[in-house]
């Protein structure tokens, strides 16, 4: 059984990372009834802008009901030289097969100047075979707030089964909309496989919006890219140093309605 957990070390945002890889029951949070289950083995890979910087197929094991910490203290290789690094933890458990291993892990990001932190729990993703053609993504980020004292950041983390430095065949095309749905700005970004792209929302709209102390609500729709993505959104107060973090999901997570209609409406922003 196999899955992967992909996450970034965001030095560019002056954040300190602690990842707690877990071995718990998906429904109950613990495995008290299955305490004899085999450990989860962790194959750790660290990339910087697509370049493999570290690989250890036997990095560690997570015992049943236990955790494995990955941070600057336990794994200094996550510290980037010129760019934020992507950490890919491949988690496997007997029996040895390609069946997906469902497991949620925890991320904690601390704002270094203020000491305030935020936390997020989200699931592993399947490991796609390198022979498969990467599919484009659709992402909705409907909780963007910007002001003179508040900013939002969208972080696109991607992972693919390669150790070569390769550019993605398709760019991410992103549209920033007002709360009324009017287009403010369009952006295209083509990055490497196994890299992270952080979008500073306030910085890219400064030439389109007059900011005040009152937060303005914006919406962001993105599609494209060609990799397996995890997308996160940070809300950060410049005044207090407080943080909020959410896992930004694809349209099906926001509605139980007809997915064909939702997908069509989401793509209208790119027409």
Annotation keywords:
four-stranded antiparallel beta sheet, 16 strands, 271 residues, mainly beta, 2 helices
Proportion of strand residues? over 45%
Mean pLDDT: 88
- Note the total helix count: 2
Return the string of H and E elements: EEEEEEEEEEEEEHEEEH
Rg on CA atoms, Å: 19 Å
Q: Profile the largest sheet.
A: 4 strands, antiparallel
- Straight-line distance between termini: 41 Å
Please give the structural blueprint.
Layout: E1 2-9, E2 15-22, E3 40-48, E4 51-62, E5 67-71, E6 85-92, E7 104-111, E8 117-123, E9 137-146, E10 150-159, E11 172-178, E12 183-189, E13 196-200, H1 201-205, E14 216-224, E15 228-237, E16 243-247, H2 259-267
How would you explain this protein's 3D organization?
This protein has two helices and 16 strands. The protein is globular, with a radius of gyration of 19 Å. By secondary structure, the protein is mainly β. The model has no long low-confidence stretch (mean pLDDT 88). The longest helix is centred in the C-terminal third of the chain and has 9 residues, at 259-267. It has helices spanning 201-205, 259-267, and strands spanning 2-9, 15-22, 40-48, 51-62, 67-71, 85-92, 104-111, 117-123, 137-146, 150-159, 172-178, 183-189, 196-200, 216-224, 228-237, 243-247.
Summarize the structure.
The protein has 271 residues and is mostly beta strands.
């Amino acid at each position: 059984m196999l899955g992967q957990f992909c996450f970034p070390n965001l030095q560019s945002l002056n954040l300190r990372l602690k990842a707690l890889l877990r071995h718990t029951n998906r429904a109950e949070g613990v495995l008290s009834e299955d305490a004899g289950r085999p450990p989860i083995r962790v194959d750790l890979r660290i990339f910087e802008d697509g370049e493999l910087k570290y690989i250890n197929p036997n990095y560690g094991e997570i015992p049943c009901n236990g955790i494995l910490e990955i941070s600057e203290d336990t794994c200094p290789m996550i510290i980037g030289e010129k760019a934020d690094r992507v950490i890919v933890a491949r988690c496997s458990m007997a029996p040895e097969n390609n069946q997906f291993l469902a497991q949620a892990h925890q991320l904690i990001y601390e704002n270094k100047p203020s000491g305030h932190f935020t936390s997020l729990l989200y699931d592993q993703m399947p490991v796609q075979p390198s022979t498969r053609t990467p599919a484009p993504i659709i992402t909705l980020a409907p909780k963007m707030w910007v002001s003179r004292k508040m900013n939002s950041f969208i972080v696109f983390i991607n992972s693919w089964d390669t150790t070569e430095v390769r550019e993605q065949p398709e760019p991410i095309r992103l549209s920033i909309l007002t709360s009324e749905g009017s287009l403010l700005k369009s952006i295209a970004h083509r990055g490497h496989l196994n890299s992270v792209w952080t979008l500073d929302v306030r910085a890219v709209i400064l030439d389109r919006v007059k900011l005040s102390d009152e937060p303005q609500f914006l919406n962001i729709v993105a599609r494209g890219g060609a990799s397996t993505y995890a997308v996160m959104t940070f809300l950060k107060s410049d005044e207090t140093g407080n943080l909020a973090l959410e896992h930004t999901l694809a349209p099906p997570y926001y509605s139980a309605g007809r997915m064909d209609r939702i997908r069509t409406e989401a793509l209208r922003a790119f027409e």
